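[audit] Reproducing an earlier prediction to check determinism. Same input, same settings, fresh worker. If the C-alpha cells differ from the archived copy the diff job will pick it up downstream; this log only records the rerun itself.
[audit] input (252 residues):
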Amino acid sequence: MDNEQFRDIPNLDAMEKQLKSVQAYIEMQQLYNGAIREVKTKLDVLDDEFRVRYAHNPIHHMESRLKSLNSIIGKLHKNGWPIGIESALEHLNDIAGIRVICYYIDDIYQIASLLTHQNDIHLVKIRDYIKNPKENGYRSLHLVVRVPVFLSEGPKMVPVEIQIRTIAMDFWASLEHKLRYKTSVEVSDEIRGRLARCAENSAMLDLEMQDIYHALEDPEQAGKRKTVPSIQEIASKLYGRSKQSSGAEPEN
C-alpha cells in the first residue's frame, strides 16, 4: 500500500496490519481446505474400489470441517502458545478435520491401514479409543496424517486429523455431546453412568452386527466373533514405513 497516497487515513498502519492478517487467514483456510479434499479423494477412491471388487462399501459417509478462528485462538491460548497464524501452523494438527463413518469395526482398521500405507501419506499420531475407550464411553480411532497439497510454489505437507468410527459410535457420540454440552442442566453422576452404559450397549451392538455380517458372508464364521486388535497390533499395521521415517508413536 502506498502510504503517501493514503496519508490522511487515520490508523493506516494498524489497518494495513489487519488486512495482512486477514489475507494470511484466508490463505491458511485455502491450504487446509486443499488438504481435506486430498484426503477425502483418497478415501473416496478406496471406497469405490471396495464397492467394485468386493461388493461392499466400508464408508457410510464422511464429514469435514475447518477449525473456527475462535477455536484456533482458544487452543493456542490454552496451551500458552503465541496467538497468530504462524503459531497455529506450527502447533496445531487439528485445524483440518475429517470424520469417516464406517459400517463395521473391521472397516475402520481396514480403511486406516490402506490410507496410511499410501506413499505420500505420513502418519503422525494415532489414538485408539476403540480398544481404550474414554472414561465417558467415547469410542473412535483418531489419526493425524500429513498430506501434500500441491500449490503453485510447490507441495506443502499439511496435517489433517481423521476420526474413524462406526455408525453406532457416531450415533452415541453425537447425542452424548448434545446432551452434555448443549444443555444448561448440570449432568449428574447418575446420568453420566447411564450414558456410559449406553456406550457399552452400542459397542456390543457393533460387535453383534459385525458378527452377523461375517456369518452371512461366510457361514463357517458364525459365532466366531473377532476381538478388537491391540494397540500394538494396530501400530504394526498402520505405521510401517511411517514409523521409521517420522518417528511417530501410538498414544493410548
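[audit] rerun output stored. Observation attached for the diff report: Residues 225-232, 241-247 have pLDDT under 50 and may be disordered.
[audit] end
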